[in-house]
Each structure stands twice: as C-alpha cells, then as structure tokens.
Amino acid sequence: MVLRVRPVRFVLRHASTSGPFRPGGKSFLRRRFQLLSLLALPDGRDCILEPLSLPEGAGHSGAPEGSPSVPCIFCEEHFPTAQQDPLLKHMIIEHKLVIADVRLVADFRRYVLYWRRRFREQPVTDFCSVIRINSTAPLEEQDSYFLLCDVLPEDRVLREELQAQRLAGGAALAPCALPGLSGHLLLLAERNLEQQQRERNDNSFHGVCMFCNEEFLGNRSVLLNHMAREHAFNIGLPDNIVNCGEFLSTLQRKLDNLQCLYCERTFRDRSLLRDHMRKKQHRRINPRNREYDQFYVINYLELGKSWEEVQSEDDRELLEHQEEDWSDWEERPVSAVCLFCEKQAETTEQLCAHMEEAHGFDLLKTKAELGLNFYEQVKLVNFIRRQVHQGRCYGCCARFPSRADLGAHLAEANHAALLPDRRTWDQPEYYFPTYENDGLLCTLSDSEGDLSAPGQSRGVTVIGEDTSQLQALRQSSVLNRLLPRGWEG
C-alpha cells in the first residue's frame, strides 16, 4: 500500500492504497496521521516517540543487571529491554520502520523477535504499509517508510496472544490464527467473566481491612468501598475486579513484608511504613507493576486499555456518590523538578532558589522582566524542557551527548540565563508539555503580585462609567440620532 504525502500538508483524502490489506476507518487514518506528523520532521533524531515523564520515585529506573537485550528487527544492533526509545529511533532512522501503538504491546521483546523471524522469511512489504513522503519532490529526494500496525490480522493476533500470555503468568501458549480476539484471550476472557459474576453474587465473602483490621462479611464490595472511603485506598470499583481474594492477599503480603504498595520500598518496621504511606500519599498501587493486570477484567476484553484508565474512571464515579464534605481535605504537595537537573522540590520558592543558585537561572526575575503571563510562562518552561531533553544549549545551540555534559556547559558558560529571542520560544508548539507529568506547570502563577517589577504591567486600565447623572447621559447620547423618533430607552 502506498500513501503519498506532501512535504508539509498531509492530504489523506488523495492517498492511494494497495497491498496485502486495505485499511479503513477513522482510527486507522488518525493513527496514520500521527505517524506521518512524526515522520515529516527533516531530522528524525529530534523526534519524541512516546509521552515523556519526569521521575516520580515509584518503581525502579534503568535496566537491571543481566536483563536481556532486544535486537533490531533488521540488523544485529542490540538495545536494553527497559529502554524502547533508542531501538525505535534506530529502526525509524536506519531502516524506515514505524511500529504503531507500541505502548499497547504487552511483551515488546517477544514482539520484536517474532517480526524479526517473519521479515527474514518474507519481504517486509508483505506485512507493512508503505508511507511515501516528499512525493512531489524529485525522485532522489523522495523517501519511503514502512508502517507495521494491528490492521494486519497477523499483527493483531500476535498482540492479543502476548496479552493473553502475560495475563496467564507468562506461560507459553500454542500458536493461534483466529481473527479478532485470539482463541486464548477469548478463553481467558470467558473464564474470568464467569469468575467475576460468581464473585459479584457471592455474599459469603470474608475479609479484613488492611489498614484498620476491621472485619467484613457479605459481599466483597463492602470491604473495597470501605477502604476507598475511609482510607482513601481505591483499587477500583468491585465490578471491574476479578479474583478479588487473590488480589487482596497479594497486597496484604506486600504490607506484611513491610513494602510500600506504591514505590515498593521496604521499611524497618510497620510504623515507619504507615507514616511513609500517609505522608507521601502512597496509599495506592504502583501503576508500573504489571502484576496487577490479571485482576482487572478490562485487560481480558479491550486490548490496550489499562487498569489505570479504569481506575481513574472509578475514582470519578466514587466521587459522584460521596457527600461533598471537605473537612478532612489535605492539600497534597506538588513535587516539581528542576529545568536543568533532576533536583525535586515541593514548593516553587525552593525550586527557583535552587535553579538560581545551582544554574544561574532566575525564573521569577525572568518572568517579571519579560512581563510573562501564564501562557507565556508555560511556553518558556516547555521550550527549556525540550532543549534540555534533546541535549541542546539554547544559548549557543551547541549539542551534547548527555544531560550531565549539557549541565556542565551551562554552568561554565553561564548560558542558562541566556535566553534566545522571544520569537524562538513564544510559539504555539510549546503550549504542549514536554513531560506529561510536569508539576512545575501546575505551580505557575499569573497574579499581579508576581509581576510587580516597575513598568512591566501590560494590563489595560478600565475606568467605569459614571452613572450618577443617567438622565443627562441619555439625552446627550449619540443613539438619539441613530434611533427612530419616539423610541424610549
């Protein structure tokens, strides 16, 4: 299949399609458009393939020692399993291959190994769509990319098989070639739906609250709703959970081992663990722990929709049923990360003081001198985040291989305070955050008190109309000459 794309504008309605399968539907075109917008960059090395996240302290960062590597689908290059971006960039730049919706692949390594074997058996064009960019340019300037996505039935079945194997605990399953839901995923879905129905109707459940040791008899929903309302510990609505007893036992086992459920750190005694979970607001489960996938029905029914999304929906539904009592509201501190290093602070003042002292960049002073409103602050922060992420000094445009090298250069040359011309960063593209969990954006302010530098206020003074002599104003109004005679106001 060939999709012709203009260098700047994507004219999807003029695309010609051919090949092993013919796509259709809005979701396919939306996915294609997103991938084309990524491929339209003149230099693929500056592209950001997936949403970025700043460090939050939960889970472990980096690949553990001895972890298996992932080979490139086409060549002998190997990359750490825990780091997909370098491999995806390599395949785009060196081999022109784009994998659609890679975050929905349950086992990325096995997915890559499967297609590595298949591409050696048959040409890549038997499986992938061909995306042709710069189609109006001379032939030597044209380029083609290959799109591998789940519109291909074989790819769809593979993704569902990997999902089924993960939910089954990683056991190898026999090959399956059923269209739509694979046989194994369908079997797991049916089995777990039956189990969930039994649990919903079971009134002989007996459980103990993990936080106050209160016993509950009857339906499982009584215990789950108690922990959500009384202890702010919500693992989801009962109707979305399967094998609830095993789920609660897993969580209780972690607590018995003095392990925090969110960051998974281990503590010396129970009192330290309890204080840590309360103060750090860690009364929730680790969203990166795939062990919990098997306990949410959605993972068996809808490929790609995680239990985290279901839990956020459950949170909204629980709040709708709760009384609006804010007496026990406790403000949760927002942890913001420095623009130039990984230093975290819970207040804007602490973070700004650190950036001024360590990097020579005064955010509040810059804001006051330039008279930045809220949206301009957002664009400036996102611009700096993008440059630092790409290892580029915005003061001299030099590139560096690592953040440490960039930080050393900024400190030595004092380029952190050397902002480029306003037209460089005051662009609509920087409305979108570089990091989707950037807490610094939540602390930005647009109050006059923060913009109190002399002569910097850009507001317009509005003087109210004097209405004390309303009759005189009515008689002298210009409207008297415009309105027909006999009109009364």
From TrEMBL:
The keyword Zinc applies. Pfam families: zf-C2H2_2 (PF12756). Keywords: Metal-binding, Zinc, Zinc-finger. SUPFAM superfamilies: beta-beta-alpha zinc fingers. GO terms for molecular function: zinc ion binding. InterPro entries: ZN622/Rei1/Reh1_Znf-C2H2, ZNF277, Znf_C2H2_sf, Znf_C2H2_type. Belongs to the ZNF277 family. This is C2H2-type domain-containing protein.
